[in-house]
């Protein structure tokens, strides 16, 4: 599981700070999460192949999370993309994108599939053999969802020496990987656990931005390996949290502790602060394993 | 008259190439012309004060000319702008901006005034004591206007030695600047031309992008000091011009020659070419005084 931060600052793009966008590589998928203005340039800069992106998840319709979307869609068109593109986001996202295509008289030559979200409860919005994606309803000034990405339990791994020693026909290997006991060439039933080892532990990633402190999300993200939780403010501006519906670094850490998260990743920093050190320090008063998002930084979680 | 090129490439923003946007300083106005994605970051980079921009002119609703507009409007809001902002552009521009403000539940605290354009003929769209702005109807795949910016004839200049020698009361200086003959302290009528010198020659700038070769614009831009004319293609791709409704460098030069332009400024280059030298060379086969737009370049025309 690999996460590339394309932008992690709040409000407005600046010369050196990009607004929210990230790429999550998980079980061969490449998911784009949020798409602030300039995301397409950040994707180029970090040499992320446009064609690998087939699913884009938009948390909410504030500009710093989606003003780059229509440009990216338009660039895909100019590059003669053919693959379908799925877009998950709040109701209204389809209207705003299609209006712009209509005004430009520039319709995509690939299929654009919108999945508009309206539920106030967590729901499964994507699933295949490898991965599930669930929404995480957040509390912000407009309708907002975080997203929970979960690998599915993979196949068990063959212990090839043990399999051969047990004299099992190659035709049964798939069954073994699926966890079944099988008979060997001598008709003896072989205990699966003696010839296979467990699958890799499925990994999970929760993206929670933008939101004020919301304990309701804890059951949804319980035991997640990595939690990205917005931390717009430091403690000295905690009073702005409820007003603007954002969180402090400490509040993000409280959620991480309650949810028994592996790693907490902070981000969506207000640009009023010089440097990010204090965000980490304040979060670590509550929760130990804290990392700082930074534009262009890549995290590998294995 | 000073022009700053924020972006001058066609189609999509790239790591080093920005899409169309320019700032024209003329007679104390600071006009923003077109606003591709990333324009707000380019404005910051070139230290252009946001508050000095009171008028934005959008040629057409293709993304590489306007996807940065809504982000800029939103950033002005976040920076608590108070001054009115006038936006001139094709019909539809108001709907697309206001839809995004509605979805974000983020209305501007300053006054946003849209001037939607629909005419197929050149029209006067802005005028004050110092400057006029006219549309230049272009021929592109969607409804498109260029813009002609014209300084008005300013005041005559006092020859202060001559004025004092002529014994003219200071109360008449404004009249003198306006070109009137006035009586001096001895009651003698003084010929204005003897105590003043002509005003600076009013300057003019025409922005023509995007368009295929269109001779109809020549009477509108006749004798303009500086003509920016798009030159998407080199001669070897001239066949793409009518199809995509763009021009070659040579066609831009033909327009400049017919219009008796002072300087021709090329831009809106396709990113398929390595370097810009050939654009200038091909244009100079037809018209001598050619300059190349480049992102970040500033031209002073005095």
Topology diagram in text:
The structure is a homodimer of 302-residue chains.
Chain A: E1 2-7, E2 21-26, E3 29-33, H1 39-45, E4 53-57, H2 63-66, H3 69-78, E5 85-90, H4 93-103, E6 112-117, E7 124-127, E8 131-137, E9 145-151, E10 157-158, H5 160-165, H6 173-177, E11 182-183, E12 189-190, H7 192-195, E13 196-197, E14 204-208, H8 218-221, E15 226-230, H9 240-244, H10 249-258, E16 263-267, H11 277-284, E17 290-292, E18 298-300
Parallel strand pairs in A: 3-4, 4-5, 5-6, 14-15, 15-16, 16-17
Antiparallel strand pairs in A: 1-2, 1-18, 2-3, 7-8, 8-9, 9-14, 10-13, 11-12
Summarize it.
Chains A, B: Its EC number is 3.1.26.11. The structure is a homodimer of 302-residue chains. The first copy, chain A, has 302 residues and is an alpha/beta fold.
Write up this protein:
Two copies of one chain form a homodimer. The first copy, chain A, folds into two domains: 254 residues, Ribonuclease Z/Hydroxyacylglutathione hydrolase-like (Metallo-beta-lactamase, Chain A), CATH 3.60.15.10; 41 residues, no CATH class. Helix content of chain A is 25%, strand content 27%. Chain A is built from eleven helices and 18 strands. The N and C termini of chain A lie close together (6 Å). By secondary structure, chain A is an alpha/beta fold. Chains A and B meet through helix 1, helix 3 and helix 4 of A and helix 1, helix 3 and helix 4 of B. Chains A, B: Its cofactor is Zn(2+).
């Amino acid at each position: 599981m690999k996460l590339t931060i394309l932008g992690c600052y709040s409000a407005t793009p600046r010369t050196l700070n990009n607004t929210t966008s990230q790429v999550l590589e998980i079980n061969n998928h490449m998911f784009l999460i949020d798409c602030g203005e300039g995301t397409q340039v950040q994707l180029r800069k970090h040499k992320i192949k446009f064609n690998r992106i087939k699913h884009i998840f938009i948390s909410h319709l504030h500009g710093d999370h989606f003003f780059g979307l229509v440009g990216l869609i338009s660039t895909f068109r100019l590059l003669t993309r053919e693959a379908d593109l799925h877009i998950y986001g709040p109701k209204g996202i389809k209207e705003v994108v299609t209006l712009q295509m209509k005004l430009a008289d520039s319709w995509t030559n690939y299929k654009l599939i919108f999945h508009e979200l309206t539920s106030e409860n967590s729901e499964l919005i994507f699933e295949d053999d490898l991965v599930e994606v669930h929404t995480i309803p957040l509390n912000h000034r407009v309708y907002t969802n975080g997203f929970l990405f979960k690998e599915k339990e993979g196949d068990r791994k063959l212990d090839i020496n043990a399999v051969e020693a047990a004299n099992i026909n190659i035709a049964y290997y798939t069954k073994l990987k699926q966890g079944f006991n099988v008979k060997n060439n001598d008709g003896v039933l072989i205990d699966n656990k003696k010839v296979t080892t467990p699958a890799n532990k499925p990994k999970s990633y929760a993206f929670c931005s933008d939101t004020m402190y919301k304990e309701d999300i804890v059951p949804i993200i319980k035991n997640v390996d990595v939690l990205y939780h917005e931390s717009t403010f430091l403690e000295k501006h905690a009073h702005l949290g409820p007003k603007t519906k954002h969180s402090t670094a400490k509040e993000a850490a409280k959620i991480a502790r309650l949810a028994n998260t592996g790693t907490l990743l902070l981000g969506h920093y207000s640009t009023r602060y010089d440097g990010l050190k204090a965000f980490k320090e304040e979060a670590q008063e509550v929760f130990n394993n804290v990392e700082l998002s930074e534009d262009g930084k890549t995290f590998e979680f294995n």
